[in-house]
Amino acid sequence: MNRNLLLGGIAALIVIVIVALLAIRPGPKLEGPTQVVFATDWKAQAEHGGFYEALAKGYYKDAGLDVTIQQGGPSVNVPQLLATDTIQFGLGSNSFIPLNIVAANAGSKAVAAIFQKDPQVLIAHPRDDVKSIADMKGKPIMVGDATVASFWPWLKVKFGFTDDQIRKYTFNLAPFLTDDKAIQEGYLSSEPYTIEKEGKFKPQVFLLSDNGYPGYAAFIMANDKLIEQHPDIVQKFVDASIKGWIDYLYGDPAPANALIKKDNPEMTDDLIAHAIATMKEHGIVDSGDTEKLGLGAMTDARWKDFYDTMASTGVFPKGLDVHKAYTLDFVNKGVGLDLKTELTAGK
User: Fold this and answer.
1) Closest Cα to residue 226, out of 20, 36, 48?
2) Using the 8-state DSSP alphabet, how is residue 165 labeled?
3) CA–CA separation, 144 vs 172, rounded Å?
4) Is the predicted pLDDT of residue 16 greater than 90, yes or no?
5) Are strands 120-124 and 183-187 parallel, antiparallel or unpaired?
6) DSSP annotation of 296
7) Cα of 115 vs its chain's centroid, Å
8) How far is 105 from 162, CA to CA, in rounded Å?
9) Which end of the chain has a smaller Cβ tally under 10 Å, C or N?
10) How many CB atoms sit inside 10 A of residue 201's CB?
11) In angstroms, rounded to a whole number, what is the distance separating the alpha carbons of residues 119 and 279?
12) When comparing pLDDT for 64 and 24, which is higher?
């Protein structure tokens, strides 16, 4: 299932609830300043691996933090948990989440972008008439409801797609597998793997971020009160998480994988291995700005590009203060670069 889009779709629907909850939210539930709860956006998987590695290898403990990872799922709403101070940190699935929170005046923001590339993809069968996203213009494409209000408008502007191409994607792969002319959306480390395994063929996979889509993904989110009152805790959590991700990608991921499978017994070794390889191959976590600034990097220019692009399509209102969606105070400091050098030496 494409959990990124599913969660992105419900984000806009809960903004009114979040604002109401903010009016009655309690103070930070920090039972001692080192106890931290971090909620992910979906069930435990390799896409959360760096956080589990930081827990398993003691990076959080070394930073003086007692971290509990609370895995997500279809009924877990990270923005709402942040708004009510139920958690200290949460994982924001994509760039729409922080901007929706700004629009709702819901009082939390992104403090690090773990995924430099949003893993959204379009998938097609091997076919001579489709060799690029541009070739999909005018052809039926199966997309979820959330996509119609997120990256579909970008596809319309960038590639000339039209709404009459839309066919409903229900997160069931059977229609794609049985129709060699089918095209559908997906998540880089999810649907393509399942299609290849079940369909016995290798689909064509087009990563939107490699075709100009400017969004980040997998944000570490914190509410404004925690950022203002306990910036030291935020910095410690961000730095330890970055080290965990470096270790997970370039060191031994086994300690994290054991915790992932404990939280989510449905997760298999081959799926985890595929996801790790995919993240590394496509530079999902470590590419571009991270090579000099360190993992988790964000820039004003990237955020402005994303907002301007989506505002031009009508997804966000013009005049929204994009700077309220994020802060650069805790990233771009080169954290983990020395560990990466150590782990990759001789490889």
Assistant:
1) 36
2) G
3) 11
4) no
5) antiparallel
6) B
7) 6
8) 32
9) C
10) 11
11) 9
12) 64
